[in-house]
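Q: Hi! First time doing this. I have a protein sequence and I read that you can turn it into a structure. Is that right? Here it is:
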Amino acid sequence: MVGVSNFMSRPSTPFTAVVLAGERSSEDPVAEAAGVSCKALTPVGGRPMVLWVLDALEATQEIGHVVLCGPPRAAIDQEEELRVRIDSARIQWVESEATPSSSTFQVLKSLPDDVPVLVTTADHALLSGRMADFFCSEARSSGCDLVVGLASYQSVKEAYPHTKRTAIHLRDDAYCSCNLFAFLTPQSRDVAHFWRKVERQRKKTLRVIAAFGWLNLLLYLLKRPSLEEGLGRISQRLGLRAGAVVMPFPEAAVDVDTVSDWKLVESIVANRN
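A: Yes, that's right. Below is the predicted 3D structure, encoded as structure tokens:
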């Protein structure tokens, strides 16, 4: 765990998990390849991948409530298991906004300030309850306002040598995102505004770093900052305490961004059974 602060999230307060399942565009290549109306319904192991995510979150000790943001209601009505979960109030469904950051901001605004929130995505089909519990527990004890989940790029490549993952190369290691974000304090929720600025560049590493200032960009180009130093600069830029949980699960960094990712995830799930 990286990150230092005096704040401690109250252990008695369960996390609310938010699953982002909206569509970035009307022509998602994964959805098209799978022959489904939206990416969240892409089949993995014979089931819509969003159900794998929901199952994982429901199998945790840390999470008390799940909010599904998207997909469109018309798409939900095509999948009986998903529809039943929503109609029975087993999970809460809300419409998604135009972008992930806007969706996150709207959901965060609707939740009580003292509730810690885990945000993840519907394409995180390999997520497990064990992973989610590990991340939430580490984030809760970090003392930070905002915590992100990362995996060592080397561990991901060793486990899945043919996968292509975006990584940020720092002095101590290279890291991949795990699509796990913990919002632990009221001030952390303001980050959704900043997220809007950088989300369109999320696969363009240098532009994302530039959003945090040209000094940080220069330091990155020189490969000078460690993860600890980078988080310190992010904390200073955002005016809060940012931390990271380095996940011991390489599959935590494997989401379904592309058709090749989908095929990889399908093979991983098939080998588990």
